[in-house]
Design brief:
rod-shaped, alpha+beta
């Protein structure tokens, strides 16, 4: 029984030691986005995309040049 307790404590100590070490940390989802951007919808397929990636044509919004050409001609 004491051997089992010893190995459990050794494991807990090892995990604590690895967590306390420095180095790169992956804090996914905890960082704030640097800039919030409006989302727009493609007039052909309906996909939502950031306004900066959208293609404009005759006052309408598209996700790619192919959809712009498809809608206009």
């Amino acid at each position: 029984m004491t051997k089992l307790l010893f190995f459990v404590l050794l494991g807990v100590a090892a995990v604590a030691w690895f967590k306390s070490r420095g180095g790169p940390r992956r804090d996914l989802g905890k960082s704030k986005p640097s800039e919030v951007e409006d989302m727009v919808r493609c007039q052909v397929c309906g996909i939502n995309l950031p306004r900066s990636e959208a293609i404009l044509g005759r006052g309408r919004i598209y996700c790619c040049d192919e959809h712009r050409r498809q809608d206009q001609g």
